[in-house]
Amino acid sequence: MNAQQSYKLSNRLYHMDNSVIQVGDKTVGGQELAVIAGPSSVESEDQILELAKKVKECGAGFLRGGAFKPGTSPLELLKLAREETGLPIVTEITSADMLGRFAEDVDIIQVGARNMKNFKLLKELGRIRKPILLKRGLSATIDELLMSAEYIMSEGNSSVILCERGIRTFETYTRNTLDISAVLALKKLSHLPVIVDPSHAAGLWWMVEPLAKAAIAVGADGIMIEIHNDPVSARINGQQSIKPERLMALMEDVAKMKCFSRIGGD
Amino acid sequence: MNAQQSYKLSNRLYHMDNSVIQVGDKTVGGQELAVIAGPSSVESEDQILELAKKVKECGAGFLRGGAFKPGTSPLELLKLAREETGLPIVTEITSADMLGRFAEDVDIIQVGARNMKNFKLLKELGRIRKPILLKRGLSATIDELLMSAEYIMSEGNSSVILCERGIRTFETYTRNTLDISAVLALKKLSHLPVIVDPSHAAGLWWMVEPLAKAAIAVGADGIMIEIHNDPVSARINGQQSIKPERLMALMEDVAKMKCFSRIGGD
Amino acid sequence: MNAQQSYKLSNRLYHMDNSVIQVGDKTVGGQELAVIAGPSSVESEDQILELAKKVKECGAGFLRGGAFKPGTSPLELLKLAREETGLPIVTEITSADMLGRFAEDVDIIQVGARNMKNFKLLKELGRIRKPILLKRGLSATIDELLMSAEYIMSEGNSSVILCERGIRTFETYTRNTLDISAVLALKKLSHLPVIVDPSHAAGLWWMVEPLAKAAIAVGADGIMIEIHNDPVSARINGQQSIKPERLMALMEDVAKMKCFSRIGGD
Amino acid sequence: MNAQQSYKLSNRLYHMDNSVIQVGDKTVGGQELAVIAGPSSVESEDQILELAKKVKECGAGFLRGGAFKPGTSPLELLKLAREETGLPIVTEITSADMLGRFAEDVDIIQVGARNMKNFKLLKELGRIRKPILLKRGLSATIDELLMSAEYIMSEGNSSVILCERGIRTFETYTRNTLDISAVLALKKLSHLPVIVDPSHAAGLWWMVEPLAKAAIAVGADGIMIEIHNDPVSARINGQQSIKPERLMALMEDVAKMKCFSRIGGD
């Protein structure tokens, strides 16, 4: 069987136009570039509120934040930040028992690379009506990513955003190797929006800005950026987080990239 | 031993400023973007003259051409094209016995991915005074590429241009995986110019333009592009060659990317 | 930080002798070779009973079986097969909500490659008192596999069996590349038993026997083999399953390999 | 085009029986196991004569030795060792200009991993009548290795021995990952003999013996082992060389593996 025929719902053959996913008054996959920014981990109310305001000021459209510390309530803090700023929130689901709360409270539910082949979780996410941000697994092929999207879509949820975040190769200078060509392949094979996460791919903060620009130049529909007010003392992933002022600089550069049109369904 | 200390001459630690390599009245590694274009294989006098004129018209700075057919004299044809257009010529050396003629006639001598670890050839190239375009091997790490540059430089030739052209990974949608982060790593570790070859990396003509833009966005000093008047009937590598009119379009887009400054020696 | 110091409980530095894991009247990691065999998927009562008897006849010590069809009760069928044959049963846990039943009914609980970094599940498995068979992830390094073992052991369960089952590389002739050297590395770094699954690694039935012998020759503590009475019509993974008579032949060859002593804690 | 049809002369489809290559009074690919042993680098007359005698005593059939120091005449020293012991000699050709002497003096000419795609050299080796030991490139697929054999054979030299010596993967514990399954794939696809080099694959001396046994268990036609009297002070590759007494122990274990028949042309 030809791999390209094993996925149908995400296949551009059967749906020529780009899918545009509505998230409140914002879109992913349409004319505007989706910029998702925030800390790797929600550490405190002060931290997330301060960073959320910075994200807003920079002109980014979405607030992301991870929940790594058991016992706190990072989702509550993200909701507070959304209330303050109006930014939709993006956060990762790590097990099916979080589904109820996430379906209610989260604007875009992220599936991490580690869960890309957690088919049971994918099926359950297919039964809710929230956009899913599906990250490519560390060693997943492009076809396998699309097959995972198919699992979600086949249950009825067609709001899937694909995310390239680096693959494992023999090169160890970067944490993973950002597969920039995958954006082109995914846009050709599928009508779904494709974003890029340079923070996790490289694992090196000083690569984040130029890789984000490369992602936009190649035609990605959005970028996901980790920021932190004080990366050196960040609880986790500090080495891959940039300061808010660097996000501001990036957004200014990005604004000059209007020349790069999104990749359409020619 | 720390790998970064095993190469010295190419190391930015000991040479903070970017190396700018002079080729006739053009430069690689300086303010201008180096665009090298031409056919994968020099097929005939008509073909190379026509393509050379197109390369010139598009505003690209260098003419490339490979010599794959035994019995013809592609180097003579490239020299003719240089005479007609004034474009410096770039072509690949595949064995040390070509060195005499290449040292005399070629403007930039290319070492292909397959020869990146041909240390004997590298040493001989170190003893001449022509710029060397050193391509990264299919499975070479960033450190190994710099070690190969060191072989050349240690013999006295400091005019080395590094070229990222894709690495072999588990992903088979593209022929190789363009390691866009390698540009950043190489510019950080070394003062040598770094260019990108999207044609060989992806092996897919429709990826060449966006990947070239990504390379520029990330801060590459140049790009190397395969073109052909009639890709479908090209002797080899037709599937990775773009038509001259697409190169023209790419050059127009590239002109809008002035905002992206080269990566300097901060 | 040196990776080898990041895991402690599984580290041979702190526990020189091989761990021998008792499962009923059998052991894994001791003098006898552990042979685990059975179908990829439990399809019916007749099927599993017939195969279990064959496994027993061949002299293999453990019965494995997967549960892929929702609605049936493969665990009940495996228990029935255990009752009939006395063979301990090995089966895979795919989500934490299966933990209660598995802790009670299963003799060795398998964690599949996909769940090797499901740290939440690993922690929960650390709190029960059943041996865990932990498979290496498709793109997991040897260090990462040991870190996952550490997650289980740090909660109190020290009965962990490591399993090499192939890694993803650029080579596509086999489904994955069996990393036979990993057995040696794991035995050196850790005191835990190490077994090999040639069926999933190669994905090709005709490679299973010779790869199993290679695993024993290199010093593995056991092998895990998929068998099926009629591989062509197997529900899944038929192409990687051997017939029971081939298992018998393999067991005879294995008996001649007494010369190969297990790898000790010298 | 199906890859398996792109090579013909090495293809088992067209030549069902195993090729047996005669080297003096010894064979490769027949009933006896070919054991090639010797130092990574020929360092002096004393060294090579002493090691050659040990190789002979151990019962290995062939003496290998590399020539890394310019200015000495390692080939002359190898010839001297051959005279003393009667062992055929195996050494690596690194450029075409060595061809004349090698065709005359060497018993098996080795093509290193780095030159596996040096098609010009392969063609020239095809025109002589000495057995060629062709090593798999670091990132070469099984198909590519067979294509390289085809280059040699298409010029008339059908005495090609294939050698698996590890591939580059994400795992860095070993220098490369020994692809033990490749032996099986090569024996199935081709009638040519297949040997394994565990020394270069692992890069770790303590893995050499068990990996050699795994190679034999899987059905390889031979093994190539680096030995050194004093590995710690070896000029190069000391960490992957075993002492002669370990080779003796290995040969004794290997003798017990008579049960493992070579892989035939069923």
Describe the structure.
The structure is a homotetramer of 266-residue chains. The first copy, chain A, has 266 residues and is of the alpha/beta class. Helices cover 35% and strands 15% of the residues of chain A. The first copy, chain A, contains nine helices and ten strands. Chain A has helices spanning 45-58, 74-85, 99-105, 119-126, 142-153, 180-189, 198-202, 205-218, 244-255; strands at residues 21-23, 26-28, 34-38, 62-64, 89-93, 108-111, 132-135, 160-164, 194-196, 222-226. In chain A, the strands form two sheets. An eight-stranded parallel β-barrel of chain A has the order 3-4-5-6-7-8-9-10, surrounded by six helices. In chain A, strands 1-2 form a two-stranded antiparallel ribbon. In chain A, β1 (21-23) and β2 (26-28) form a beta hairpin. In chain A, α4 crosses α5 (142-153). The longest helix of chain A is centred in the N-terminal third of the chain and has 14 residues, at 45-58.
Summarize the helices and strands and which ones pair or pack.
The structure is a homotetramer of 266-residue chains.
Chain A: E1 21-23, E2 26-28, E3 34-38, H1 45-58, E4 62-64, H2 74-85, E5 89-93, H3 99-105, E6 108-111, H4 119-126, E7 132-135, H5 142-153, E8 160-164, H6 180-189, E9 194-196, H7 198-202, H8 205-218, E10 222-226, H9 244-255
Parallel strand pairs in A: 3-4, 3-10, 4-5, 5-6, 6-7, 7-8, 8-9, 9-10
Antiparallel strand pairs in A: 1-2
Helix pairs in contact in A: 1-2, 1-9, 4-5, 8-9
